[in-house]
Design goal:
The chain has 340 residues and is mostly helical. It is built from 12 helices and 2 strands.
Length: 340
């Protein structure tokens, strides 16, 4: 057997090679892949058919109507959609600068011995259940906002022209701003981890060349790292946005759960997810209210699906977008290695 070739060994393999075993394995794999598509389609179909009576009863106006009256069976999604969009946008505005700072620290500023603990802490934040964030927000953040932050902002910015209306009202602690703050903390690790991985993909030779030309770390990050990794970072931001749009329990704890629209960020409000969580359990089967809640769920599902699809598109490996195969016979130039 010492002189046996690979072909000889293959010819001596059991006759069942490529028979029933491979067929069963392939069938199971195809069934698993098909199950995902069937499950996704089933969820969409269930929500759409369940919410169809509400769409028929209120038409397109259901999307921007601000009235929610279970007694008279008049329902509109305007308040919850407004709360969902505002809290998500505020959360992204708060989280992106912090996530960017964390990513730069982990890749360019922190010493090697410190990068491990900071990276682990970021990953642990991502693993904390949302109910924990909600309880922590209700028992710590809400009192802190009511007693410290909101009075300062109301006194300092409440009378300022144009933006003053955003910081008016009684300092209850709960509201749109507090919900956005909790959401920002929740999505921070996702954006930071994505940005860190994107920064690590920047070719070292590009950064070393910039340092060799006398660039500072700030200039390297601004002129070399960000232009190369901006698409992947944008994908991470979209992932965080998708998480913020669909968050339920943490927001329900701190948003105040009031069905009204206010220009003040300190006023109570609602999101699609929090309204469904609060009212779904006390809704009668077959009622128009249940149809309205399912219609809200369908719209949230579609929005989240679009956001996550865009994030996946932006997070495609950069090699698929930028790397091109050299022409046949064309010489390949070796990249110079510059050491600081």
């Amino acid at each position: 057997m010492s002189g046996a070739t690979a072909r000889d060994i293959f010819d001596q393999a059991p006759a069942r090679r490529g028979g029933w075993g491979d067929a069963i394995f392939a069938a199971l794999c195809h069934a698993a892949g098909g199950f995902v598509l069937v499950l996704l389609g089933g969820i969409i179909l269930t929500l759409f058919l369940g919410g169809l009576p509400a769409f028929r009863a209120f038409g397109v106006g259901f999307l921007w109507s601000t009235e929610w009256d279970p007694v008279q069976e008049i329902f509109g999604a305007g308040v919850s959609i407004y709360g969902t969009v505002v809290t998500a946008m505020l959360a992204i505005t708060m989280a992106v600068p912090l996530a960017f700072g964390i990513a730069v620290t982990l890749t360019h500023l922190a010493p090697v011995w410190m990068r491990g603990p900071i990276g682990t802490a970021v990953e642990l934040l991502a693993a904390v259940p949302s109910i924990i964030y909600g309880m922590w927000g209700f028992y710590f953040v809400v009192p802190f906002m009511a007693n410290t932050i909101q009075p300062i902002l109301i006194d300092g910015l409440g009378g300022v022209a144009i933006i003053g209306s955003l910081f008016q009202g009684p300092p209850f602690g709960t509201g749109i701003f507090t919900a956005a703050l909790i959401l920002a903390i929740m999505i921070l690790p996702f954006i930071a981890a994505t940005a860190r991985d994107a920064f690590n993909q920047v070719p070292t030779v590009h950064q070393e060349s910039a340092y060799a030309l006398g660039c500072t770390t700030t200039e390297v990050v601004r002129d070399v790292v960000l232009p190369y990794a901006n698409t992947a970072v944008a994908g991470g931001v979209m992932l965080g946005l998708g998480r913020a749009l669909g968050e339920t329990m943490a927001v329900t704890f701190v948003i105040g759960n009031a069905n009204r629209i206010s220009t003040s960020l300190f006023a109570s409000g609602n999101t699609v997810a929090s309204q469904m969580a609060l009212e779904f359990g006390e809704t009668e089967t077959g009622s128009l209210k249940l149809a309205a809640l399912l219609a809200l769920g369908f719209m949230l599902f579609v929005i989240s699906f679009i956001v996550l699809a865009l994030s996946r598109l932006l997070l495609r490996p950069r090699s698929e977008q930028a790397v091109r195969k050299p022409r046949a016979g064309a010489p390949r130039e070796a990249e110079p290695s510059i050491t600081r």
